[in-house]
Design goal:
alpha+beta, Penicillin Amidohydrolase, domain 1, eleven-stranded mixed beta sheet, eight-stranded mixed beta sheet, 25 helices, 35% helix, globular, Pen/GL7ACA/AHL_acylase, hydrolase activity, acting on carbon-nitrogen (but not peptide) bonds, in linear amides, hydrolase, calcium
């Protein structure tokens, strides 16, 4: 026994020593001195208890060079993944399994657009913004050259190349693509329209329905304006191979002074993004003469897209406007390299790109473009299941160079609401709802995007006729006609990815909008009182109630064959009285979502097939159509086309319920009181290398179960499935609350932690806090930061 104990002690000592050696080799440095070539004066960085850097510099150039270094120290591998997606070079690092992803993004045109934007950037003369961007890039590259690279590079046998302005624009391009709803949805809608016809299509919510909630527009400005936000079988399976998350949606609301306890603006934002490790946002606080800003930064981007000064705050949600059309081309019968265009023919332009692939020779890949844009057939598998003709993508983002860097620079430095709006105008795509609040009492929302003017006959969700020039957009709406609301009489502005109301020009602009459940809960709650503060508003931000799904559960329970449910009266009563809460001890969601899946599958898989049905569940079309599908009694979807009889709604619901009860008994046992939601929910934040075992045990971050839900304010989304285990795939990438009565007391939380370095103490320290609905401070008070910080780096000039 003594020998065994001695052996275990030695083994523990060796393991501990080995871990410390590896940690020293790959772990970040948070204390001491670092020399930065090009620094103008000494810069101090204080790290708070959650690893957020507070940078005190003598100039913008020094601040951003320092930010580049500390950002890279914590998130370099995340930057690597993001830039490689945006430049189409994932296969060079991760191997041929990612080749199809590179082909997809290259065909879509993001790397080409990044190069174009970088070229236009280089043509501009010296400016403050250019100095700041170049300084940030220099800071990143100093870390790449001189810092301790994270463990991931050693495991992959790779060292990073220098970071460039083209990489930065590639990251912006990827994040502009990320919502991708047109690519997921339009082929499906076109298939239903062509193969099944209008009776089937009419039961879906291809466009916003009257019962959906819209965001009020108030284009006329008012108030305090002068006062001082890989498997090629389907696109979704291809996207599942991405080593970086996708933006899913967001909430933001800003409450005016007349509805708050303090009499000052209350600002909230929670962006919904795919869960990953590290999470998307990197927080940093910058202080230099005439500038003080606390921001949330994307990997590789120097300026915070969401953040605040002591005078104003900015946030965002996805606008979800339709900015991508697909044109089905007709080939010239005498020349397959030309397309029909009216009474003329237009050439198909081809180019060959060499895609580097790890461990093998580069792969030559041909990209073809028609007059409407890149032809997507080879990289968007769904197209080939709809038509054999070439289909081209017309996408607003790639039509002009991005000015996102200039826009975020100007918005973060605006002195008043007018200056802020001028910055917001520069965003041409993707469509963003930019949210604003300030110390002077102003609140505002702008939908920022270049909105195409489409002909009245065009349904932008169905493939258009590439041979007919009259199907093409006719121009652009002026920014002044975009959806917006500035100091509205209701005393608040809110966006939750839902449809803006009719514009002043009479347009009800099409998009991939959510039905507005979240917006309605936010709006109805805000107007219920006038004493909102930073504490009582948390209940709304953390709310997990969805009344739409509870009403559907009632309808479903009311329309089964009652004689079949003598043994399930208690379950039926539970569903009939469910108020839509998704608390972990609730049983209703466990039963409802499995029942809903089997109902929808029985309704639709016979017509669509398994693959298209699975795709349907990944689109906004499912979220927006589910109510109409369940409520429409005489829908053709209820009938199973593979049987001789005509199935009714009650028949489908009854069979689906029986299947649900049998499966839940097998899954969770016969004691129905133990069928609680907590047993059905799983949350794990996946690292890019976590797809390979046993690296998942090392890099992934597991979290406690969260109250997963569909379209509650605290949206914690999952994919509907037959297994009854729901992996939460996305949710708030942060939760920000700020009261302008005391900006220095603002709060937030991240899903995992501030650092992406495995050996950082801040790799996953916020994961449990996030799951439990807790918050932590966003510090800006200099005395508080400096007196409490336990870790500090002094950056010295060379």
């Amino acid at each position: 026994m003594k020998k065994l104990i001695f052996f275990l002690v030695i083994l523990f000592f060796l393991f501990f020593t080995g871990y410390q050696v590896v940690k020293y080799q790959f772990g970040p440095k948070y204390s001491g001195e670092i020399t930065l070539t090009g620094l103008n004066s000494e810069t101090e960085v204080y790290f708070d208890d959650y690893g957020i850097p507070h940078i005190y510099a003598g100039s913008a150039e020094d601040a951003y060079q320092t930010l580049g270094y500390v950002h890279a120290q914590d998130r370099l591998f995340q930057m690597e993944m993001m830039r490689r997606v945006g430049t189409g070079t994932l296969a060079e690092l991760l191997g041929e399994d990612l080749l199809d992803v590179d082909k997809f993004f290259r065909t879509l045109g993001i790397p080409k657009h990044a190069q174009w934007s970088a070229d236009e950037w280089e043509k501009t003369g010296p400016s403050e913004i250019k100095i700041a961007v170049n300084a940030y890039i220099a800071g990143v590259n100093t870390f790449i050259k001189e810092g301790k690279l994270p463990l991931e590079y050693t495991l992959l046998g790779n060292t990073p190349r220098p970071y460039t302005i083209e990489d930065m624009h590639g990251i912006i391009g990827y994040m502009s693509f990320t919502f991708a709803m047109a690519m997921k949805t339009d082929p499906l809608v076109t298939k239903v329209a062509r193969d099944l016809g209008p009776d089937y299509l009419n039961v879906l919510s291809v466009h916003t329905l009257p019962e959906h909630h819209v965001i009020p527009n108030q284009n006329k400005k008012s108030g305090k304006e002068d006062g001082k936000n890989l498997d090629k079988s389907s696109l979704q399976k291809l996207l599942n191979n991405l080593p970086v998350p996708l933006i899913e949606g967001s909430n933001s609301w800003v409450i005016g002074p007349n509805r708050t306890a303090s009499g000052e603006v209350l600002f909230l934002n929670d962006t919904h993004i795919g869960f990953a490790q590290p999470s998307v946002w990197y927080e940093a606080h910058l202080e230099y003469p005439d500038f003080s800003y606390y921001g949330n930064h994307l990997a590789g981007i120097p300026f915070g897209l969401v953040g605040h000064t002591r005078q104003h705050s900015m946030g965002l949600t996805m606008f979800e406007n339709d900015d991508q059309d697909f044109f089905e081309e007709k080939l010239n019968p005498d020349n397959p390299n030309e397309t029909v265009y009216g009474k003329e023919f237009r050439p198909i332009i081809s180019r060959i790109e060499e895609i580097p692939v790890k461990g093998q020779d580069p792969v030559s890949f041909e990209i073809k473009e028609s007059v409407h844009g890149p032809i997507m057939n080879e990289v968007l598998p769904e197209i080939g299941k709809v038509t054999s003709n070439p289909v081209a993508s017309w996408w607003v983002y790639v039509l002009e160079p991005t000015k996102a860097l200039e826009a975020t620079w100007r918005m973060s430095r605006s002195k008043d609401i007018k200056e802020f709006e001028e910055g917001a105008k520069l965003i041409h795509a993707p469509g963003l709802n930019v949210m604003y609040g300030d110390k002077a009492g102003n609140i505002a929302w702008w939908a920022t995007a270049k909105l195409p003017i489409r002909p009245e006959h065009v349904n932008s969700k169905i493939f258009l006729d590439g041979s007919n020039p009259e199907d093409e957009p006719q121009g652009w709406m002026p920014f002044e006609e975009n959806p917006m609301s500035i100091n509205p009489p209701e005393g608040f502005v809110a966006t939750a990815n839902n449809q803006p109301d009719t514009l002043i020009n009479g347009t009800f602009f099409p998009g991939y909008y959510y039905p507005g459940d979240r917006w309605n809960r936010i709006a109805q709650t805000i107007i219920s009182r006038t004493d909102w503060d930073q504490n009582n508003i948390k209940d709304l931000q953390l709310e997990v109630v969805n009344e739409t799904h509870s009403s559907l559960a009632t309808i479903m329970a009311d329309n089964v064959f009652l004689k079949d449910f003598e043994n399930h009266k208690e379950i039926m009563a539970l569903l009939a009285t469910w108020k839509g809460n998704h608390d972990l001890d609730s049983r209703a969601p466990t039963i409802y979502y499995k029942w809903l899946y089997h109902t929808l599958h029985a309704m639709m898989a016979d017509e669509l097939g398994e693959e298209w049905f699975d795709n349907f569940l990944e689109t906004f079309l499912y979220i927006r159509s589910v109510s109409k599908l369940i409520k429409t009694e005489n829908s053709p979807w209820w009938n199973n086309i593979n049987t001789p009889e005509i199935e009714s709604r009650s028949k489908i619901l009854t069979d689906a319920f029986n299947k649900t009860m049998a499966e839940l008994s097998e899954q969770l046992g016969d004691d129905k009181k133990k069928w609680v939601w907590e047993k059905a929910v799983v949350l794990e934040h996946p690292h890019p290398l976590g797809a390979k075992q046993p690296l998942d045990k090392i890099f992934n971050v597991k979290a406690p179960a969260v109250p997963a839900n569909e379209e509650s304010v605290n949206k914690l989304a999952f994919k509907l499935n037959p297994d009854g285990i729901y992996h939460v795939k996305s949710g708030p990438a942060m939760r920000i609350i700020l009261d302008f009565a005391n900006v220095e007391a603002s709060e937030s939380i991240l899903p995992t932690g501030q650092s992406g370095n495995l050996f950082s103490p801040w790799y996953s320290d916020q994961a449990e806090m996030f799951a439990k609905g807790q918050y932590r401070p966003q510090l800006m008070n200099e005395n508080q930061i400096k007196s409490n910080s336990k870790k500090k780096i002094v950056f010295k000039k060379d």
